[in-house]
Amino acid sequence: MNSTIPSPRETNTHHAFGQPRETIESARHVRGGGKFVADLQLPGMLHVALLRSPKAHARIVEIDVRQARSLLGVHAILTGADVQKSTSSIYTMAQMHKPPLDIPLHALATDKVRHVGEPVVAVAARTRAIAEDAVRLIRVKYEDLPPVADADAALASGAPLVHENIAGNLIMHRQHDFGDAESVFKNADHVVRRKLRWPRQTGAALETFGCVAQWQPGVDELTFWSNHQSNVLLWTLGPTLGLPPHRIKGIACDIGGAFGAKFWQPRAMVICALFSRLTTRPVRYVEGRVENLVGGDNHGEDRTYDAELALDSSGKMLGLRFSVVEDYGSAFILGPINNAEPLAQATGPYDIAAFAFDFTAVLSNKVPQAAYRGFGGAAHNFMLERLVDAAAVELGLSAVAIRELNLLQPEQFPYRTATGNIYDSGDYPTALHRAVKESSYDLWRERQARAREVKDPTRAIGIGLVSCQERSVQSGTALWLMFDQEPGRNTTAAESASVRIDSQGSVRVALHSPSLGTPTETIAATVVAEELGVPADSVSVSRLDTSMAGPAMGPSASRMTVMLSGAVAGAVREVIEKMRPLAAHLLEANPEDLMWDPSRACFTIVGVPESSATLAAIAHLANGHALRLPAGCRSGLESTYTYDHPMSSMPHADGSDWGNYAPIVGHTVHVPVVEVDLQTGAVTFLDYFVMHDCGTVVNPDAVRGQVVGATVQGIATALTEELAFDEQARPQNTDFRSYFLPTFLDVPAIRLGHMETPSPFTYRGVKGIGEGGRMAAPAAVVSAIEDALSPYGVRINEVPVTPEKILKWLGNASAAQ
Amino acid sequence: MKPVKLEVNGIVHEVFLEDRTSLADALRDDCGLTGTRLGCEHGVCGACTVLVNNRPERSCLVLATQAEGDTIGTIEGLAASPTVLAPVQQAFRQAHGLQCGFCTSGMLLTAQSLLDHDPDPSPAVIRDWMHGNLCRCTGFDQIIESVQLAATLIKQDQAREEELS
After folding, report:
1. Which residues of A touch B141 (CB under 8 A)?
2. CA closest to A23 among chain B residues
3. A34 contacts in B (CB within 8 Å)?
4. How far apart are CA B119 and CA B131, in angstroms?
5. May I ask which residue range the UniProt record assigns to the signal sequence (chain B) (predicted)?
6. Mutate to test the interface with B, among A25, A30, A745 (most CBs of B within 10 A)
7. pLDDT of residue A438
8. In this structure, are residues A350 and A423 in contact, taking their beta carbons and an 8 Å threshold?
9. Mean of the pLDDT values across residues A463-488?
């Protein structure tokens, strides 16, 4: 354990956790009072519109901006040449590779465009409408180049190159074998194999990405307002802009949903910064919806698996191996994170000793990949659960039986996986049994059997069941894949919080990173209530800008509840220790004889509970009454506490062990029941049950919201959402009329079962919860549909499962008979 | 640019607009009412929903000049004053009908309109009435429960008023 919270007297009593509580955030949002980036109005502010490439791959021959420049209201225009003159390439994780990969990323295309939607020219004007008018007056002459439309095309011999210095469009290729998977597979009784396809999807938060930049001449300081999840990373733009990193300040606005898609959006930030330097005005850019879906650097995983599971004759799993080819698009912004992160739970909740994989990352003429809820974990769980379902069918086992046989047992925790990541705690057999019982699994099976007897040619019932991991609390060491034999340049991703108590005894908390609706402000206040004993709704919560923020990463990879509660609790406990000598002074007692009593928010003398010093009395003394202070004490009552990742560890130098990078592991079992209309291919839900365990629950309603919301996103992953490309690498899903988000009418009510297996390694046993629903639902829904169609021999190896595909598969099945 | 009079939340705003200015942009940029959100500007997501003559409308699809002479209601006018909440707002807080808050303004106005028409809507009616408002965070269950709670709160308010009168 790297990090401990100072804990003079750990108690098991919860004062504030687990109770229903209205969120702090909702008080402003129900009034329309949230302050999102598009709500900022600064005097003299200019608005940016971008001319984006209509072509996937083309050389830029000529750009004519003369007409646009002469339009009234236009203040400045930038092309790739201007950007190249005044900035260096944006720092991406391609540069962290050893040796650095020559995959440059500029804010505007320079010599050629590499994907549809790539920004080519930027206009800053008095209003957004004028900027958009000006964009329409710009003429760009392109010379077409053959596009690389997918991974197969990228790897074909003689394929056109996306980046000239990346031979064969191959970013990286890695092979690892843990536990001698090769011989395990050679000697296994059974090997099941599936080839699976997972196309791009995206977070599609209702608020698009946006930022405002304001350059201050003289001090040469740049302030960004944005809805970045990781505005704490803005300093990395320093080298790009030629500024000392500490001269870049990030202010987090309210964030209208992110889901990973706002993790890191450097291009528009650089454009606004350059415009602000040119004009000395504040400059705003807010993506349009089409820009967001087509060119927004926010697409999720895009991969093909060839996967195998080795089992003995009884159905015991022995080994897992797969090769995966990942299409990262035209840059490598977040490195191989979408492939590295899921390997923290490579073997799922199962006891599988041997694991091997073969990973190929390629470039294509698509917009660069970034993050989408789960960092690739949804596709990984889909792959594993498809194999488990296939194995059950081939071995004649039920979906429940094969899992019963292979789930890790409670006494195996903490469990070291084949790759070296630790699972902290869990009780998977209980989760499975409760899910079977509470979902009425057996009753649904009976109903399915009766329906099948009738042989209704119009509809079929299917029952899905998956058991999945939700790893949480990422450490940046997950990026070991970048470094081959030399790991360890990465951040362990700490989180900081400040707590201050004023002279009235009122408590203020400052977060050091942005907050989403997850709801981190409320969680921070609840932790204060838990530790200190003041009412949570009396705590005032604000956010620091990055100029004074400590080490922090912000909301991503289901880390905030664990990391923030560690930081806030640490700060509160330090403040309590600062109060101790003051309380002793007031009570004329020995400091060691005092204990903090959170049930009354006061210090008492151990064994003399009626003798107490209240928070208000101590706070009054502590804030500016130096003459009354005991010797050795200073005025002021505050603490800033940086909480380190509780379990992060280094990968082994020889690559045999990747260390701990997401060891706080939640667990979930999903049981959807679907009815498939065999004539239209439509899928409707008869029921959907979710059993979940995210350790100690801080706020039950917020946890439910995360589980249900993520599950519904996962349902849409399974059924409707896809960012498809044609053979010219042109996006086919460009707005909400072709990229189908789920509506009230598309999804069922989700029934939940709660379990709490506290983590032994975190504050009060909390675990992350933000991504689990989406990590499990795609596998579960596909499992249910395949179950419904099993009498027709249909095997499903891809998402989304659209009505068209279902009808095609049924047609193929009947043609085969 | 020409002068346009917009009656919003009972106050008449005289603003100078281009013909092409949408009602959403006029409300946000010219009337200072930024609680109306823009999610897609294609009329799909419903985040920009406002009440025009008490009917929910997409303010991104209506030109501001078209709304001259209409009565417009936005989220800022839903409660009687900034320090109190309308029952539907209170219900969304209590039943966790929101996370990030971006769809919430439109969601609340559509919900209010539903409750004006049907004081006791079933979950099926709520799903049908509100399906033009997208929420990417909640998965909808807690919104449905919020609307039902709002119906209960309104009935309690009415009962209390009847008792007093």
Report:
1. 704, 708, 749-750
2. B93
3. 101-102
4. 18
5. none
6. A30
7. 98
8. no
9. 81
Q: Which residue has the tokens 């005289």?
A: B14
Average pLDDT over residues A768-797: 97
Provide the percentage of residues in chain A whose pLDDT is more than 70: 98
What residue has token string 């329309």? A32
Q: How far is CA A774 from CA A203, A668, A747, in A?
A: 11, 11, 14
Taking a contact as any Cβ pair under 8 Å apart, which residues of chain B between 128 and 147 contact chain A? Answer: 128, 130-144
Alpha-helical regions (H) of chain B: 23-25, 87-94, 104-117, 123-130, 141-164
Residue in chain A nearest B107 by alpha carbon: A30
What are the sequence ranges of the domains in chain A?
A: 24-34+494-643, 376-474+662-722+735-816
Which residues fall within 8 angstroms of residue A432, CB to CB, at 6 or more apart?
A400, A403, A404, A407, A467, A669, A691
Nearest to A730 by CA among A55, A53, A52: A55
DSSP letter (8 states) at residue A765 = G
**Residues A675 and A788: beta-carbon distance below 8 Å:** yes
Question: Which pLDDT score, from 0 to 100, does residue A13 have?
Answer: 73
Work out the end-to-end distance of chain B between its first and last CA atoms, rounded to an integer number of angstroms. 51
* A287-339 confidence digits (pLDDT tens): 999 999 999 999 999 999 999 999 999 999 999 999 999 999 999 999 999 99
Give contacts of B29 with chain A, Cβ < 8 Å. Answer: 41
pLDDT band at B36 (very low <50, low <70, confident <90, very high): very high
CB within 8 Å of chain A, chain B residues 63-82: 74-76, 79, 82
B131-150 pLDDT tens trace: 999 999 999 999 999 999 99
What average pLDDT is seen over chain A?
Answer: 95
B42 Cβ contact partners less than 8 Å away, ≥ 6 residues apart: A289, A735, A736, A737, B60
- Give CA–CA dist B91/B71, Å, rounded: 25
Q: Are A363 and A428 in contact (CB under 8 A)?
A: no
Compute the distance between CA of residue A293 and CA of residue B154 in angstroms, rounded to an integer. Answer: 40
Task: List Cα–Cα distances, B120 to A238, A394, A523, B90, B107, in angstroms.
Answer: 57, 51, 34, 17, 17
Residues pairing with A307 in the sheet: A194, A322
Q: How far is A720 from chain B (nearest CA, A)?
A: 14
Whether the predicted pLDDT of A5 surpasses 80 = no
- A813: its two tokens: 């099945």
Residue B120 touches chain A, beta carbons under 8 Å: no
CATH number for the segment(s) A376-474+662-722+735-816: 3.30.365.10
In whole angstroms, what is the distance from residue A219 CA to residue A222 CA?
9
Tell me the three state secondary structure of residue A814: helix
Indicate the CATH number for domain A24-34+494-643.
Answer: 3.30.365.10
Q: What is the DSSP letter of A159?
A: P
CA distance A784 to A767: 28
Report the pLDDT value the prediction gives residue A478, as an integer from 0 to 100: 78
CB of B148 within 8 Å of a chain A CB? The answer is: no
Question: What is the three-class DSSP state of B15?
Answer: strand
The residue among A286, A221, A277, A283 whose CA lies nearest residue A250 is A221
pLDDT tens-digit series, residues A428-468: 999 999 999 999 999 999 999 999 999 999 999 999 999 99
Write a three-state SS string for A67-96: HHHCCCCEEEEEEHHHHHHHCCCCCCHHHH
CA pair distance A720, A432, nearest whole angstrom: 28
- Quick check: A40 and A212 in contact, CB under 8 A? yes
Domains and CATH numbers, chain B: 2-77 (3.10.20.30), 87-164 (1.10.150.120)
The CA distance from B45 to B102, in Å, is 11
pTM for the model stands at 0.97
